[in-house]
Amino acid sequence: MIGIKTARAIAHSNIALIKYWGKREGTPGVPDDLNLPAVGSLSLTLDSLRSETEVGPSPSERDAFVLNGEHRGDTMAAKVFRHLDRIWAETGNSGPRPPCQVISHNHLPTSAGLASSASGFAALTLAGAAALELDASPAALSALARRGSGSAARSLWGGFVRLERGHLADGSDCQARPLFPASHWDVRLLIVHTARGPKAIGSTEGMERCRRTSPYYSSWVDTSEGDLAAAEAAIAARDLAALGPVMEQSCFKMHACMMATYPPIIYWNGVTLEVMRAVWEAREAGLEGYATSDAGPHVKVLCLAATAEALAERLAAQPGVLAVESVGPGPNAQVEVFG
Predict the structure, then answer these.
(1) Which of 135, 163, 184 is the last residue of a domain?
(2) Residue 3: its pLDDT value, please?
(3) pLDDT score at 1
(4) Residues 238-262: pLDDT tens digits?
(5) Does a structural domain hold residue 335?
(6) Would strands 7-18 and 334-337 be described as parallel, antiparallel, or unpaired?
(7) Cα–Cα distance for residue pair 260/37, rounded to 1 Å
(8) CATH number assigned to the domain comprising residue 159
(9) Phi-psi region at 69: left, alpha or beta (left = phi > 0; alpha = psi -120 to 50)
């Protein structure tokens, strides 16, 4: 049996400032697991929210997955090993993949709308590629990470990252690329926690329901490229007043698309809405911040580092808010091989 190495990777979560929501329809004759987005996206990698994943030979000669200290044999484990199968296929080796042990720890809530799948599959891709000795460029690894989770393609890099929608049926032009490093702009993302536990509807299911039933879906797709161009220009100029409105509109367009599905999808709760109102009121009072929210109830607020503490205190005082985290731009993903 072919041996494998042991490798450990750390990848940081990212939050899309210009959102990714929806997948392209499959193309006949092309693998159906390419996970191609219907729109491009632009994100900020975060410094403290991360996943650490180790991939190595299994001591039991069977695949084993441990997440946050718990042995898992569920659909999540199946997704993990399906992704290792993809990596193995890219190596060109014949025969079955060697049994692997995957040990992962998320330093953020899982399945709660905080992009744990982004950091998780980015770390798995890097550790798996190193362990299985796949020689691939960063761009190719980004495209491979995308097949596990669309947002994972962006978590290979720190700072501000853009994922192109691409147009080719095989997905080879659907790769992320770094725009600006973490040092480019001294901003903070305030993560306002408004609930505990996983979300009721997974993102994959929600995206497909939107694509099939929302009357707003085509408009959402058609307006994406303009949002991406405006946001990239604003980040290049470090212009929060230009970035914030397009970021908020991208968020609200995405959630409007969700709410107009059948049956409707509403990830927000009452506290979510009150926090957003509080962000707007704070802005009127001179504390500039802009709100966004992913497929979950939590609110993320982009602001300058100089105003982060005062704005966080104001939002933490809102009824129902459980906690407010202030997170800065994060680094590139890292991988090391042990043997």
Answers:
(1) 184
(2) 72
(3) 46
(4) 999 999 999 999 999 999 999 999 9
(5) no
(6) antiparallel
(7) 20
(8) 3.30.230.10
(9) left
Predicted confidence at residue 27, as pLDDT, reads 60
pLDDT at position 203: 87
Sheet strand arrangement including 299-304: 289-292, 299-304, 187-193, 323-327
Same-domain status, 126 and 193: no
Residue type, 103: I
Q: What is the pLDDT of residue 117?
A: 87
Question: Are 278 and 324 contacting, i.e. CB atoms less than 8 angstroms apart?
Answer: no
pLDDT number for residue 200 = 83
Residue 332 lies in a domain: no
Closest CA to 289 of 243, 232, 236, 235: 243
Amino acid 222: pLDDT: 96
Task: Please give the Cα distance from 284 to 242 (Å, whole number).
Answer: 16
Burial of 197 (0-12, 13-18, 19+ CB in 10 A): exposed
Q: Could you tell me if residue 2 is inside a domain? A: no
Ranges of the chain whose pLDDT falls below 70:
1-2, 26-32, 109-115
Spatial CB neighbours of 44, under 8 Å, sequence gap ≥ 6: 14, 15, 17, 159, 160, 161, 187, 189, 302, 329
The domain boundary, picked from 160, 184, 208, lies at 184
Q: Which domain holds residue 286?
A: 187-327
- Quote the distance between the C-alpha of residue 219 and its chain's center: 23
The helices-and-strands tally (H runs, E runs) of the chain is 9, 12
For residue 240 the two structure tokens come to: 């929060």
Q: What are the pLDDT digits (tens) for 275-295?
A: 999 999 999 999 999 999 999
